[in-house]
Amino acid sequence: MYMAGATVPISSTPAVGMGLALFYGGLIQFLAGLFELRIGNNFKALLFCSYSGYWFGLSALYATSFFASTTIGATDLSVTYKALGVYYLGWTIFTLLMLIACIRSNVLLVVFFFFLLLTYILLTASYFLLWDQNLSRAGGAIGIVTSLILWYIGFASFMIKGENAYFELPMFKLPTNLGTDSTGESAVEVRVQKP
């Protein structure tokens, strides 16, 4: 969110945040995705590996060693902003798909993807409007809220009562099958059969 200027003035030196983006956002998430794939959790594997690609890609766009920051829009800065708008549009669409895919998991994950979608929508609009700083700051501010939600999800997933904690934080799980009861019968049929 440093890049969006939510907490500091909009920076003209993006290299400050690129180390964190490349190694924590990119490498660590990629490794987490591989570990999730190994244990058979395909949704989390796709999630972690894809968003690591986002951070690797963003780092490559801003790192001078990849020459993307010096060749895209070298003569016209509006070309750079529109290219970044297309980049963020792709991630906006992907995040919408992830939001749809997680609808039946838990409330916090749905809220997280909703806020992440809002973040990407604002950043996409910002770049298509030639880096509108107000939209960029709004996207950064919502991105900070998004990261707080994700930190809560991560912390709550580690808080296991009896193993490493004295209490658990609620995750607000959603029902996985609304149409059947525990025996597999339709909930409507069960209500009709039992007076």
TrEMBL record:
Species of the source: Rotaria sordida
Keyword vocabulary terms for this entry: Membrane, Transmembrane, Transmembrane helix
GO molecular function: acetate transmembrane transporter activity
InterPro entries noted in UniProt: AceTr, Gpr1/Fun34/SatP-like
GO cellular component, one term: plasma membrane
Pfam families: Gpr1_Fun34_YaaH
Compartments (UniProt record): Membrane
NCBIfam families: AceTr_1 (NF038013)
Presence of keyword S-adenosyl-L-methionine: no
Protein's recorded name: Uncharacterized protein
UniProt keyword Calcium, yes or no: no
Membrane protein topology class: Multi-pass membrane protein
Membrane-spanning residues: 15-34, 46-67, 79-100, 107-129, 141-160
Family: Belongs to the acetate uptake transporter (AceTr) (TC 2.A.96) family.
